[in-house]
Amino acid sequence: ITAKWQLLPIALLMLLWFFPRHKLIVHSLIMIAIYGAVSILENASIRRHFLIGLITGITACIARDFAVYFFLSFAALIAYVGYAQQKRDLRKKYTVCILGISIGYLPIIGMMIFIPGFSSAYLDFIARLFSAYTPFKSLPIPWPWKVSPANFRFDAFCLGIGYILQWVFYVCSIIYIWIAREGIHKLNPLFLSCIFIGTPILSHANGRADFGHFAQCIHPMLIALIAVGAYAIKEKKTVFAVLVCSSLIFSLILVLTGSREISMALRKTNIQTEKEKRLAQFTIGVDTLWLDQDQITVIKWFQNFAENNLKPGENILIAPLFPGVYPDR
Question: Model's pTM, two decimal places?
Answer without folding.
Answer: 0.78
